[in-house]
Amino acid sequence: MSETLTLRGARPYDGGEPIDVVVRDGLIAAITPAGTMNAVGEVVDVAGRWIGPGFWDAHVHFTQHVIRRRRLDLTETRSADDVLTIVRRARADQAPLTDGMLMGYGFRDGLWPVPATLDALDATVADVPVVLVSGDLHCGWMNRAAAARFGVELDATGLLREGPWISLLHSFDEAAHLPADAYADAADAAAARGVVGIVEYENTDNVSEWSERTSAGLRSLRSDIAVWPDRLESVIAAGYRTGDLVDDAGLVTFGRLKVVVDGSLNTRTAWCWDPYPGMDPGHPHACGLESVPIAELRRLLHRARGAGIEAAVHAIGDRANTEVLDTFAELGMRGVIEHAQLVRDDDFARFADLGLIASVQPEHAMDDRDVADHHWAGRTGRAFAFGSLHRSGAALRLGSDAPVAPLDPWISLSAATARSRGDRAAWHPEQRLPLDVALAASVRTALAVGEPADLVVTDRDPYASDRDELRGMPVAATLLGGRFTHREL
Predict the structure, then answer these.
(1) Using one digit for the tens of pLDDT, what is the confidence trace for 26-74?
(2) Cβ contact 341:364 at 8 Å
């Protein structure tokens, strides 16, 4: 338990008068008008800064987020040639290899003027395996040396997508080459942005790995951990149910079964009702693909429900969302739909009717607006439609899908409320969220007596901050259960 402390002279986001907040044993013990009672314990002068509940990121791939820092950065590339230039330079400069591979992350090929080719990548680097991970994690571009190493067959593009790629991605032994403190460093960086918890969707043995991390001293984040279908039976056999504490530190909670029903927009594999531009309507994947058949989804959810495990289902295309909504309705089961990027007009209200949570990633709308305008032309009024989901009564949760977008709640808040960044006008401004709604979708606690002392202190009032000020919000302190996990006071 934490020591007693008093945060003196803070201002709540809602514009109220300054307050003193007393924290005891991990909880908010008292909130009084500033200066009206004797301070107890350690006294921390907040000096008129603003205070609110600490943030949760509702969708993170934490290991991939940590690993990203060690890969070639391809996030600013706009063509195959851009990518090849970075790869060529890195090899010439003897950039560090990971397990003998040259790894990169962040390309998005949805709008490339000239497509990727296996020959082009092989001509750039052939002496070592090259594995380049797409920005949405749903695709990889590899050379022949990498294909030979992993025993995969590549077509003329050198691209591997969806199921075969995702299985390969999670087999890479990159994590074994991370410094011992890499996870703690990444957690501390998240805490420095006001994050107190994450929902972990990494496809790995999260029970063991997160227990080991907190035992080794990672104490700056709470984590709700998911299980993927291939490990479902083992966690059922171990007796885990949604909401169970997993680790001795009391920071890791068993969460939900994660099922991925379709692909992604950038790889044109999101499962839609209408074909993608330029695709032969008769092609089996003209409208994207069904990664997990709906009959199998139904079986998995039924099995999980019987074991006391809730579900979170990845659905990006509008057909995927319809089919997943139908499945939850058939089973009478509550849960989470992850992403919900393209939704039919008739389906928005069904989220609330079925008691489902829409877990969305606002910065994806900023990253993908151009590719959506192209591949979902005529449908983008219902793409990344956070406003429509909110107006329909759906419960919202905001996240980053890190490393796909930065693990930074202020970036998500800015994107959700402004629908713009840089010098661009708002994209479908009718889909903006009010700030109070976006804030509520980013936290799990309240600034109230009896609530966990998971708190963030900022140098500016979010309600008086413009789009860019929100995105770069200075965070003065973060507390987790009354402990400082970040402090500049």
Answers:
(1) 999 999 999 998 889 999 999 999 999 999 999 999 998 998 878 999 9
(2) yes
- The letter for the amino acid at 172 is F
What are 59's two structure tokens? 């969708």
Q: Are 429 and 369 within 8 A, CB to CB? A: no
- Classify 94 in phi/psi space as left (phi over 0), alpha (psi -120 to 50) or beta: left
d(CA 250, CA 224): 11
The CATH code for residues 1-54+446-489 is 2.30.40.10
Do residues 398 and 406 touch, judged by C-beta distance below 8 A?
A: no
Q: Please state the pTM of the whole predicted model.
A: 0.91
Chain mean position to CA 282: 34
CA distances from 478 to 21, 31, 436, 438 (A): 14, 18, 20, 19
Given a contact cutoff of 8 angstroms between Cβ atoms, the answer to whether 10 and 50 are in contact is yes
pLDDT digits (tens, 9 = 90+) for 400-417: 999 999 999 999 999 999
Q: Where are the domains of the chain?
A: 1-54+446-489, 71-175, 182-444
CA 434 centroid distance within chain? 21
In the CATH hierarchy, which fold is given to the domain comprising 182-444?
Answer: TIM Barrel (3.20.20)
Q: What is the CATH number of domain 71-175?
A: 3.10.310.70
CA distance 94 to 92: 5
